[in-house]
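Hi R.,

Here's the chain you asked about this morning:
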Amino acid sequence: MWTTETIADESHLREGQAMASSSDQRFAHEPVMLDEVVELLAPVLARPGARIVDLTLGLGGHSAALLARAREDVRLLGLDRDPRALASAAERLAHFGDRVIVRHARFSELPTRLAELGWDRVDAVLADLGVSSLQLDDAGRGFSFQREGDLDMRMDPTRGESAADLLARLTQGELADLLRDLGEEPEARRIARALCRASADERPRTTAELRAAIVRAVGARATRRHDPATLTFQALRIAINDELSELESLLAILPEHLTRGGRAAFLAYHSLEDRLVKQCFRSWSARCVCPPELPICRCGGKARAVRLTPGAARPMVDEVARNPRARSARLRAVEWVDER
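And here is the predicted structure, written out as tokens:
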């Protein structure tokens, strides 16, 4: 039973309820860097009537901890692209009542979702980027080469093409560019050549078939720090879900929606997304935007934000031991100081 505020798109509510079940409990995992995230956002959680946005609601672990720490009049908007995640999180957060609102949305739809609620600005934003354990541990979603299933990889299974369909329509050159740009795969051309040697309808349609084809192309090399399929799966997933473009859209619109003194925290898991966050935070916190060739500042610029993390915070050793998926996490946070 849904006791949180009604989802705007009822079709996604029904779809999520159909996919979600008590079996989702087996996907429950420890939210990454939970204590660090809560402490970074704690000052705004103490504000009367504060508004929080969890842009990647997932199973609701971060949101539950934030609401537990916050004042009782603080409300949280939880967004996710995955209807099943929304259904599971809504059940987990039901005891918070109307303090929680869940919506089916991607990052670029944030302004629309805020406008629907009459929220012009918010006090805290959290984004836990990348794929969730709910998605990764479900073989049927096709995110993991460690589990055999259809090569799907869509975070929102209700729209868009699957990874198998994308793989079938790309040319060798297009696939090589994709693997190089989105996976930073050093063997991009060799893998693309091997995969595109077959006709479109003979290319891999399952996770096991794709991994086997990659291993045949490059071998299970001892010099690699990870499975030879890792970067190819990453590249296809990012492409299918348009992850980097969505992140760029979010970073572009965020300044319009953070209150003065509001805070934003981002968890990133690979260099491409972390680089975008780092560069954006750096530009917001820069006082001077004059060309480097000018000997003195002429712009009179003021920093729009203050970085709360020196560089990127990393998970503690004991957390990585408990939850190996946290090992690549990088946490960055800022406080918005622009008076507008």
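One quick note: The chain has two domains: 10-135+244-336, 159-241.

Cheers,
M.
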